[in-house]
């Protein structure tokens, strides 16, 4: 019964934290209140278990979570922004605390996978619904104007909640390589993982997904096959770049235009400003400036004027925005997570968690994916699954080595039996997801 309640809670928390995919037909005040209550309730409960565990990914997540909370103090100290304004703006970034609650509850990984896959499919369905009804904004917000318009050769809809969709398609490609069941279902979702980014004509989205797909399907091939696939991939990219497909031509032209600007590219100039000139004092250069309440507090009004007069948007500078708002330690936390994603070993059926973290790394320079509420809950799911699978794998590896070191025949016999039991347990763990 307790497990079922937990699963229902997580299902509801996902859709609430995503603001129902930013649905415009819902009462925004009601949605905001519901979101605030759900997120802050989760934070308050989760904080109790923040220091119960260590090892794996615990420390980096602790650093990031505490940096976000402390940034509210810095917003008051450096900008005079009241704690009410800071809380209104900052709570949406605080769902990192959910990581500790999931660890405490030992939430089954398999259940979380199902939730991610279900929401990934829902994301795709709602995206195509919005695409077919582009004249009316049901979800999200147009880049400009009151309705979605053609840009870069396509009706450009940056559909909200991309984090859960990206994680779902990485699960799909992983399952294609490790699971004999439901291959057509996973193949369909994996195909959508290529189609939808191209339809949204967002460069970092396309590049991030393509690189992960390429790595996944090439990494276990022979050198000859790798060379052939790499050559075919390069040839395909060249042909696409020179094709007359409107969406492809739009992306290529945008990239060529921005490349010619060099240091004059607005995101480069914004990044330099937020990195070197924005913070008003030394403490803010270390601990961050906090999250501005856009257009409301004096701090928020300053950020609004900055966007209007210079077109410097904090959401355009990725990890620099993390540094600007939450400080050096938050950036160190992210760097630690990315480092661990490369050096720690986890069972291959959970490789999708690494892919998701690498996607965040690839897109971290010009995208808000590292901190935006459209991504945070997916990030927490990926980190939780990574951490639990790593800790379980580490435990069994340690016990196996310990038993292997025993010299007697009886002990070697026990080791053999243990190895068989370990293989059985791991197969059951995959079915029940370490529950």
Automatic annotation (TrEMBL):
TM region(s), chain numbering: 7-26, 32-51, 58-79, 91-109, 116-134, 154-173, 185-217, 313-338, 358-386
Keyword S-adenosyl-L-methionine: no
Transmembrane is among the record's keywords: yes
Keywords annotated in UniProt: Membrane, Transmembrane, Transmembrane helix
Protein's name according to its UniProt entry: O-antigen ligase like membrane protein
Protein source organism: Cyclobacterium lianum
